[in-house]
């Protein structure tokens, strides 16, 4: 993948970006330097429900931005607050202080799939398409594309509660991508994926970035770090950003991916919650 020129942004961090923003119809519009999503000075503390139990301070003056065509990783230990941060970015959780500015549409893939057990995969997609206000032609086109890219065509008429965990997990990002959002926020999206689907996921991600989608991914997977343009690390409430030098980011084909000898998935396991493997 050709990396565009680095530009300096609102947060003062050099980032990669595309020269155009996809508008969801296949056409493009001129890019601006404004981030697709920008959070500044976020504070979040969970109050304790129990007397004498401590409150949990999760975010302390956290700032983050994601631009069009940028792939951003969010990393940190279990319980460091990554999901809390993402929920605030999406708007499903309110911060105590700070601001979030959103430009364009957002797709969100929560850590736990929010799907209806009794619907089939196709019915699920139809339901969300209705909510997004997508035409039936566009919906069917998107469904065919996503099912092909993530490899679940044969399960379109299977009920959600009868899918394997890995196949259910494929429906989750599909719902988030159905309306072709400007920004895609994914909370550990590939837990349960087999190796082929994991590669297909990154292949899809790279195509979306090429089209101008800004993507934020919560990942526990150390081997994924060189895929990101920028990484935010959350530790003790502090969010710090680091940027890879131009040309360092690897794509799906090449080093760090399918040729990564460290990746045990090639033996046929599935990816677990911490980016390790279970299986085969
Ligand atoms: N609704 C809540 N009420 C009280 N505390 C909460 C609530 N949600 C999360 N927490 C606490 O806030 C902290 C951050 O949780 P969060 O789920 O954001 O972390 P995380 O980095 O996403 O974790 P993981 O990597 O395990 O998914 C944890 O200590 C968690 O126990």
TrEMBL record:
Pfam families, per database record: ABC_tran
Keywords carried by this UniProt record: ATP-binding, Nucleotide-binding
Sequence ranges assigned to domain ABC transporter in this UniProt record: 40-261
Single GO MF annotation: ATP binding
Annotated region (Disordered), positions in chain: 1-33, 242-280
Protein name: ABC transporter ATP-binding protein
Organism: Natranaeroarchaeum aerophilus
